[in-house]
Design brief:
alpha+beta; nine-stranded mixed sheet; about 15% helix
Length: about 1000
């Protein structure tokens, strides 16, 4: 249509043919000098078309204008670009400042005479000095607490002081300092992107911490952990959903054995590493934890928790005589030469530390003989001082020596104390009977460690306190030899409560030891303490005035579900609902949430951060996990944001006329006029009664000026703009010719016209725009017009979209042809498509789908209109700017009974097509160029938007391999395309997909989009 009425030469037409053949028939070459049959046909076509085009272009331009004027239509005005700007306060000045609606902000540009593009704010906002310091989200169904921004401290699992190595301490300290410094550098500048109510990282934990002094110390021995009245807890441990671990020197470890006993409530636990202890007060405790292996959304109760232990028989850790270490398997406790006060030490720190347990020592005893004789000289020299000379035995019969009495002692921290056993043991070696011996006793509470030769730990000391004839010579010493000594301990079925219990739920830790002595069940494991899906936002300063603007920038992925929410604030009595204006339309588009902060907003500590809190609460949960996959993705969140529009609002100007003229037109002195506020002076030809009635009924539409006597000297009425005077709803109206920039009034008969000649005829305030020049990149809008006290910087985080110039004549002709065709009504699919494309120059393609929605639901009453925007690659901002207004206009013009719920205006499902190309080049020096050319050809070919050289791709179609191969044929002179693979990535209502394009079930909502291409070069 654009070139149909412009004269084109045969050369122009031939050039167009040559450009098109590169896409449709790259193997054919159009040659003007040595033409083949195809080139000759193309040249004949060009000559004939040139003549027809010449005749068409001779049609007078006024005929085209009259065609438009038949409908009394006017050119559609230019459309202003819009963007979002963020204000930053000058720190350490005031708590905030008001920025009224209409505040002017500029960007430098060479496209205007002034060198500036002017934008105006759309709303009043209060720019606050408060900063976002913490953001986290909670999910009631998933039971998660997900940190998004800020510092959060989770409680340590183990209380008290752990004894750790110096190198470990220095490493931990260094790590903590590094993290702290990095967090300070990143503070407040940017909240990371996140999925609203869809974050799955969980800061919270569900852990039961059990502290015990002695029962968990043993290695390789049974530890018994019993849960009374805890059927669900026991089941989950058996299923592996809850793990039982102990604290070792290398961290928490699972027990080597975790076996449920036949009673259905007691677990037998065995570990292979030494327990690491923590000191709380003056006591040291080993630590056992129950840790949920999945996020908990419920709570588990028990009636009681108790522990016991029992060690299997094991050899002693040490046997010695106080000086040297003896063989543990077989040893003579008092040596082969018996004497009073000979002693033996038997050590086993593990068993002897089990205070209150029954310790059993078993061993086999045999007796050996040792004949001792002494010479007279030795006897005289060694024993003369300490004893009388023994009597001579005439028969020289050796004296019988044996252990008549012993004592068994333990070290109580002060000295050695006699150990009380179940049976009398003092004369156990006196009878010299061989066999099995057993000692049994209750382990004392005050048994302490001691050092004995090379051994340090808890020991038994066995001493001889009576051995008759031990010093007589000759003597026959019957000394005992002990074999296979073993030590075991048992609590004999006695279970004791842990020394301490703690519960970690989410990020909160509490002492629940009191539950052990309570007669009621108590909770030992639970999830987070939040009972709603909410986004918590913490601010460092109180919001003192409003309206406050909280901006959410959505990522540009399609099919994001809307989420209805409400806003709460932290007051004196907890969170309270407050009224907010949601300009994100339930998070279906980028926008702001505006609210007036209540005066009783209170500082509170939540998750370790003492801040002023607001929260955004989801009104209703998603019904399925599938719906959660399409929750809004927030790429930016910040305060102090407002929409700005490329609008210049002039001061109000006065206009005069000499004589009342029908069809009066006057220049307004502006280009790209959007609209005007026109106040016409009706003093002198409107009756006083009517003026009084208008002042009473429509005070916002009339303005009266009075002289010093109180009489009306001027009476201004707000007139409205119409497209046509014929059938105008109000006779007080005017038209604007945006091509000439003039205001046009009627003839005074069909509609009213200005009549005052001795005073101001009318006043007008003009709003204009820069059209396409207002589509600026992000960061360009950065200056104020006039003073901006307390504002440090302003910038636009997203590019300005949607600006368009005054409607062209060609576009108006096409629009008017559509009007004549449809008679202002929408009936057929063609009518809908034409209406959409005529609505905005930003729309490249449209498709109407009846009876189906983009979610895949079918309903005969549904009408889905799929729009491809020309600037789709820059995001969905321009789509969201027109979608709501377009839907409203369609509903007003459609003939079919369509409800608002059944009409859907959506963007297409973009299928990112990524192509991998294997190309063989003749010369490896050209490999780099070929690779770049392949990627360029694919990127241009897979662009869905129409251009001068291509119509792009239709909505509902995807390319085939044959088409890609044909398009890559343009590189035939440089490379041979051996093969290609095509993969499509897209998101629809059923999830995220990445498939070979042959396997994609194409829907009418899909459209191709260039993905990431890869070229593999080989050499011939």
């Amino acid at each position: 249509m654009e070139s149909a009425f412009k004269p084109q030469t045969a050369e122009d037409i031939e050039n167009r043919i040559d450009s098109l053949r590169k896409s449709y028939a790259p193997e054919w070459k159009f040659d003007r000098i040595d033409p083949d049959a195809g080139s000759v046909i193309a040249q004949i076509f060009a000559r004939q078309t040139e003549e027809n085009n010449r005749l068409m272009s001779q049609m007078p331009e006024r005929y085209h204008m009259e065609f438009v004027n038949m409908l009394d239509a006017t050119l559609r005005p230019a459309q202003p670009a819009a963007s979002m700007v963020i204000f930053n306060m000058d720190s350490d000045t005031v708590l905030g400042t008001q920025v009224p609606r209409g505040t002017r902000i500029t960007a430098e540009s060479d496209s205007t005479e002034s060198g500036l593009i002017i934008y105006e704010t759309d709303r009043n906002i209060f720019v606050t000095d408060s900063r976002i310091r913490a953001v986290f989200s909670t999910d009631m169904e998933a039971g998660t607490l997900s940190p998004i921004f800020g510092n959060y401290k989770t409680p340590d699992i183990v209380s008290g002081t752990l004894s750790i190595l110096d190198e470990e301490e220095s490493e931990e300290t260094s790590s903590e300092e590094t993290i702290s410094e990095e967090e300070e550098l990143e503070e407040i500048y940017r909240v990371r992107p996140f999925t609203l109510f869809g974050e799955r990282e969980n800061l919270g934990k569900s852990i039961l911490v059990i502290y015990e002094e002695k029962l968990v110390d043993s290695i390789g021995e049974a530890i018994y952990l019993r849960f009374d009245g805890a059927h669900d807890l026991v089941d989950r441990i058996g299923q592996g959903r809850i793990a039982i671990k102990y604290l070792s020197k290398t961290g928490f470890k699972t027990f080597d054995t975790c076996e449920l006993l036949s009673d259905g409530k007691t677990f037998k636990l065995i570990k292979s590493l030494e327990a690491r202890k923590t000191e709380i007060g003056s006591k040291k405790y080993a630590v056992v934890i129950l840790e949920a292996q999945e996020t908990m959304t419920d709570s588990l109760e028990v009636e009681g928790i108790s522990l016991s232990a029992g060690g299997d028989s094991q050899p002693p850790e040490f046997v010695g005589d106080g000086t040297i270490e003896l063989e543990k398997r077989k040893f003579a406790p008092f040596s082969d030469e018996l004497a009073v006060f000979n002693e033996c030490y038997i050590g086993h720190d593990g068993c002897f530390s089990k205070s209150g347990s029954r310790i059993t020592i078993k061993f086999k005893t045999s007796y050996h003989e040792n004949k001792l004789r002494i010479s007279p000289e030795e006897e005289e020299a060694e024993l003369a001082i300490i004893k009388l000379k023994p009597k001579k035995n005439p028969y020289d019969t050796p004296a019988q020596v044996k252990v008549n009495e012993i004592i068994i002692e333990y070290f109580n921290g002060i000295g050695w104390k006699k150990l009380e056993c179940d049976t009398e043991y003092s004369g156990m070696f006196e009878s010299c009977e061989e066999g099995e011996y057993k000692l049994s006793f209750i382990c004392p509470e005050n048994w302490g460690a001691t050092e004995t030769g090379p051994y340090s730990g808890r020991c038994l000391r066995v001493r001889v306190i009576k051995a008759d004839n031990c010093y007589m010579r000759p003597g026959l010493h019957m000394y005992p030899v002990i074999e296979n000594l073993s030590i075991s301990y048992s609590y004999e079925g006695r279970f004791t409560n842990p020394a301490r219990l703690e519960k970690i739920s989410g990020t909160r830790k509490e002492d629940i030891t009191a539950g052990l002595v309570s007669e009621k069940p108590f909770t030992v494991l639970s999830g987070i303490q939040y009972h709603e899906d909410a986004l918590y936002i913490g601010l460092d300063k109180k919001l003192t005035d409003g309206p406050i603007s909280l901006y959410f920038q959505l990522s540009d992925s399609n099919n994001q579900n809307g989420v209805k929410c409400h806003m709460d604030y932290m007051g004196p009595n907890g969170f309270t609902n407050m009224r907010a204006t949601d300009l994100t339309e339930s998070f279906t588009r980028s926008g702001t949430m505006m609210f007036m902060p209540p005066s009783d907003m209170t500082e509170a500590t939540i998750e370790g951060n003492r801040l002023y809190w607001i929260r955004i609460v989801r009104s209703s949960a998603q019904q399925t996990e599938l719906a959660d996959a399409f929750l809004p993705r927030i790429s930016r969140m910040c305060l102090n944001a407002v929409i700005v529009t490329n609008v210049q609002t002039s001061d109000e100007h006065d206009y005069y006329i000499e004589d009342p003229e029908p069809n009066l037109s006057m220049p307004l002195g502006a280009e790209n006029i959007l609209d005007a506020q026109v106040w016409v002076n009706e003093k002198g030809y409107t009756r006083k009664e009517e003026m009084d009635q208008l002042l009473q009924d429509y005070p916002e539409k009339v303005r009266a000026e009075y002289d010093f006597l109180g009489r009306i000297s001027a009476f201004y009425v707000l007139w409205q703009e119409v497209d046509s005077f014929q059938g105008a709803p109000d006779k007080r109206c005017y038209r604007i010719d945006r091509m000439s920039g003039e205001i046009i009034f009627s003839d005074g008969t069909m509609c009213e016209m200005p009549r005052v000649t001795d005073d101001i005829a009318f006043k007008a305030r003009i709003r204009s725009t820069d059209g396409e020049n207002g589509n600026l990149s992000e960061g360009q809008i950065s200056n104020f017009i006039g003073a901006s006290p307390y504002i440090d910087t302003v910038y636009n985080p997203i590019r300005a979209h949607g600006g368009s110039n005054l409607e062209t004549l060609d576009h108006a002709l096409m629009r008017c042809a559509g009007i004549m065709h449809s008679r202002y009504k929408l009936v057929s699919e063609t009518d809908y498509i034409r209406f959409c494309k005529e609505y905005s120059d930003s729309i490249d393609k449209a498709r109407v789908i009846v009876g189906e929605t983009i979610e895949g639901l079918t309903n005969p009453s549904d009408i889905s209109i799929v729009l491809l925007m020309k600037d789709y690659a820059d995001g969905a901002f321009s789509f969201h700017r027109i979608a709501a207004a377009l839907k409203k206009d369609i509903l007003n013009n459609c003939e079919v009974t369509v409800t608002e719920d059944n009409l859907h205006v959506v963007e297409p499902i973009f299928v990112d097509i990524s192509v991998c190309v294997w190309a063989m080049v003749m010369d490896m020096d050209e490999a780099f160029d070929v690779s770049n050319e392949v990627k360029t050809v694919l990127t241009e070919y897979l662009d869905p938007v129409s251009s001068q050289l291509s119509d792009g791709w239709s909505i509902g179609t995807l390319p085939k391999q044959s088409q890609i191969l044909m398009r890559l044929g343009v590189l035939r002179s440089k490379a041979v395309i051996q093969r290609i693979t095509m993969v499509g990535h897209y998101i629809d209502s059923s999830g995220e997909h990445e498939l070979d394009t042959k396997d994609i079930a194409v829907t009418p909502f899909m459209i191709v989009k260039s993905g990431v291409h890869k070229v593999i070069i080989t050499n011939k």
